[in-house]
């Protein structure tokens, strides 16, 4: 069944998160950011998103070197996600490593925006 394959892949991604994803997850987990619950490597339609806050309809994506070659794919994916009423914010690995506090603050600002 397709959903079982998708679920298994999401589990694999949770076990093999990138260093930048782990670094950000340490800050997002356990409702540490404004009390909001985030899920990591969450299934969303045909996609798996890096971090998802359902309550505020916010998706946080971490883009590494591989994303430079996937601009078209990322754009289609964002259109799909935003078409379902979710906001998508993206951070480069380098942004996370250089200033995690700024990244978290930008996520807080996004959480404070009204949901659609």
> What percent of the residues sit in helical stretches (DSSP H or I)?
40-55%
Q: Order of SSEs, N→C?
A: HHEEEHEHH
Strand content: 15-25%
Mean of residue pLDDT values = 90
The parts where pLDDT drops under 50 for at least 5 residues are none
Question: How would you describe the overall organization of this protein?
Answer:
It is a single chain. The protein has helices at about 1-15, 20-30, 70-85, 95-100, 100-110; strands at about 40-45, 45-55, 60-65, 85-90. The chain is α+β, with helices and mostly antiparallel strands and about 120 residues long. The chain starts with a helix and ends with a helix.
Q: Can you give keywords for this protein?
A:
single chain, alpha+beta, 5 helices, globular
How are the secondary structure elements laid out?
Elements: H1 2-15, H2 19-28, E1 39-44, E2 47-53, E3 58-63, H3 71-83, E4 87-92, H4 93-98, H5 100-112
What is this structure, in a nutshell?
The chain is α+β, with helices and mostly antiparallel strands and 116 residues long.
């Amino acid at each position: 069944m397709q959903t079982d394959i998708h679920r298994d892949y999401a589990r694999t991604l949770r076990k093999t998160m990138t260093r930048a994803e782990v670094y950000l997850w340490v800050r997002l987990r356990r409702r540490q950011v404004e009390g909001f619950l985030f899920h990591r490597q969450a299934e969303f339609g045909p996609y798996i998103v890096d971090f998802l806050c359902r309550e505020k309809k916010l998706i946080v994506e971490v883009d590494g070197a591989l994303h430079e070659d996937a601009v078209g794919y990322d754009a289609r994916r964002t259109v799909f996600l935003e078409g379902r009423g979710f906001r998508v914010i993206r951070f480069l690995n380098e942004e996370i490593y250089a200033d995690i506090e700024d990244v978290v603050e930008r996520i807080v600002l996004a959480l404070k925006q009204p949901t659609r």
